[in-house]
Every structure is written in C-alpha cells, then in structure tokens.
Write a structure and sequence with these properties.
Elements: H1 3-14, H2 18-31, H3 34-55, H4 62-80
Helix pairs in contact: 3-4
C-alpha cells in the first residue's frame, strides 16, 4: 500500500466519525443564515490576516485588534439573537 492509499483511507474514515458529521451539519446550518455566515467568513478572513502578519514579523495595529474585537462582538450579538 502506498502513502496516497493510506491518506485516502484515513480521509474516508475521518469523514465517517460523529465529530466530522456534527461539524458538517453545523456548517450547513450556519450557511443557511446569511448574516451569521458572513460574520463567520469575515472572522475567518481577519484571523488569517492577523496570523499572516504575525508570521511575517509585522506588529498588529490597534486597528487590527479593534476590527477583530468588533467582529467578535457582532458574532456574540448574532448568537444571542437566535
């Protein structure tokens, strides 16, 4: 058996776990709520941007932190309103 067969087998097995199925169902539910899904994508984007800045040695600005905090607050507000 080569490594690609092993990787594909592992991927197939992971997709059958309850955790993966729960995550997939949660993602589907989230994607049905436009506002919540947009917030999710925005938070994901800012996390990627902040991580990229940190990895390249750039300092995070107050603006970066403010934007991340505002998105977090919007997500919390959206969660409470459901």
């Amino acid at each position: 058996m080569n490594i690609y067969d092993t990787i594909n087998q592992l991927a197939a097995e992971l997709k059958e776990t309850p955790e993966y199925k729960d995550l997939q169902a949660s993602y589907e539910k989230l994607s049905q709520n436009e506002e919540a899904f947009k917030l999710f994508k925005d938070v994901n984007d800012i996390q990627k941007d902040l991580q990229a800045k940190q990895m390249s040695g750039q300092e995070l600005t107050q603006e970066d932190m403010t934007k991340a905090n505002e998105l977090g607050q919007q997500m919390e507000k959206n969660r409470r309103n459901r």
